[in-house]
Structures are given as C-alpha cells and as structure tokens.
Amino acid sequence: MHKRGYHHGNLKQALVEATLKLINAKGPHGFTMAEAAKAAGVSPAAPYRHFSGKEDMIAEAARQGFEIFADLMQYAYQKGAPSALASFEATGRAYLAFARKHPGHYIAMFESGLRINADPALALASNRAMSVLSQATEDLIAQLPADRRPPATMVTQHIWAMSHGVVELFARGEPGARAPFTPEDLLESGIGVYLRGLGILTQA
Predict the structure, then answer these.
(1) Which of 52, 53, 139, 203 gives 84 a disulfide partner, CB atoms 3.0 to 4.6 angstroms apart?
(2) What DSSP assignment string belongs to 18-40?
(3) d(Cα 91, Cα 60) in Å, to the nearest integer?
(4) CATH fold of the domain at 1-51
(5) d(CA 138, CA 143)
(6) How would DSSP label each residue in 44-76?
(7) What are the domain boundaries of the chain?
(8) Taking a C-beta distance cutoff of 8 angstroms, is the pair 92, 163 a contact?
(9) pLDDT per position in the chain (204 positions), as tens?
(10) Buried b / exposed e across 85-108, counting CB within 10 Å, b at 16+?
(11) How far apart, in whole angstroms, are the C-alpha atoms of residue 24 and residue 16?
(12) Topology of domain 55-198, per CATH?
C-alpha cells in the first residue's frame, strides 16, 4: 500500500520534514517517534532505518537548519560589503529572518537541548554559521586601536546573545505579538548602543 508523504524513496528527508512540523506544533519534547512516522506516512518501524531515535531525528533537523542559517548569514554578510558596519548589521537581521522563516529548524537548533558538540556533523554546521558572525565582528573591530580592541570572540558572543534574546522575547509567539517595538528596531538600537560603547560608532 502506498504511504502518503513518502515519495521516491526519500524516507530520511520525509521523516525530517515530519519532525519539523511536529516540533513547530508541539515542541521538541511533545511528540513521539511513532507520531513522526505517521506524519511522514510510513510504518512505526520505518524511521529506524535511518535514525536511532527521536533525538537523532531532531539532530538532523538541527543540522539542516544550521546549514540554511549559515547560507543566510553568509549571503547577508556579503550583501553588506564593502562596509564592515553594514555587513555586521545585516548578519543580525539575518538571524531574525531565519527564526521567523524556519521556526521548526530554529527550535531544533536552540531549544531542543541537543548536545551540539557530541555530534561532529552538527558541530561542524553550527561552527560554520557562527564563523560568519565572527568574521563580520573581526572586520568591524579592526578599525579600533589595538589597545582598545576587545576580543572578537567576546563581541561575537555578546551580539549572538542579544540577537537570540530579541528572537526569544519579541520575535516568536505571543511575546512577539505584544512587543511595543519591532524586533528589528530593538536589535538595531541595541547593537547601536553596544557599538557606541566600544567607540565604533560616534555618539550622536
């Protein structure tokens, strides 16, 4: 009997797509392996051909998400050239755009409790995405005198934390609907305050 949702032998990807829909609807801990199989239109035993368990399916969804995320960040970074500031700001906006457009991937990546470094493929994809923001940061702070230049890694982590906080508090779900400012305005103003504190932007 033909199973709906399972096409052309691409069982693994069909299961990932089903997992993403369930994550978005129920959260990463709100569904079972059997539900993912049913959503993909395959038997309960079928997922075990490719995945050892639900966490393995979520990890693959997260890996694919990091690859998409890295591509978006890289595009934003290059689009902002030749201005280091424009590239830096563009990567922040790309973070917000990704969270909105790919909520299932975002949850799998950042809210599922995955141990990213325990999976080499997942860690590689995650590091690729972070390397774009790191490069944008290094380009930006290079204009500061060496004796006033903070570690690029620290600045990267600060901006990542700010971007993540804006997404979590204001860009997704009900909190986002109640926010008095747009997530883009909040992130842009927050980055502006931060960069003025570093001396990269002049006080205006």
Answers:
(1) 139
(2) HHHHHHHHH-TTS--HHHHHHHH
(3) 24
(4) Arc Repressor Mutant, subunit A (1.10.10)
(5) 9
(6) TTGGGGT-SSHHHHHHHHHHHHHHHHHHHHHHH
(7) 1-51, 55-198
(8) yes
(9) 344 445 446 899 999 999 999 999 999 999 999 999 999 999 999 999 999 999 999 999 999 999 999 999 999 888 866 788 888 888 888 989 999 899 999 999 999 988 888 889 999 999 998 898 899 999 989 988 988 899 999 999 999 999 999 888 887 765 555 667 888 889 999 999 999 998 887 754
(10) bbbbbbbbbbbbebbeebbbbbbb
(11) 12
(12) Tetracycline Repressor; domain 2 (1.10.357)
Residue matched to tokens 């049913």: 38
- Site of tokens 């009900």: 174
What's the CA gap between 109 and 112, in Å, rounded?
Answer: 7
The answer to whether 64 and 16 are in contact (CB under 8 A) is yes
For residue 164, give both structure tokens.
């993540």
Both structure tokens of 27: 């959260």
Quickly count: other Cβ atoms within 10 Å of residue 142's Cβ. 11
Asked whether 108 and 114 are in contact (CB, 8 A), the reply is yes
Determine if residue 32 is left, alpha or beta; phi over 0 gives left, psi from -120 to 50 gives alpha, anything else beta: beta
How many residues make up the chain in this entry? Answer: 204
Question: Token digits for 81?
Answer: 């050239």
Interatomic CA distance for residues 54 and 32, integer angstroms: 7
What 3-state class would DSSP assign to 172? coil
H or E, element range at 3: none
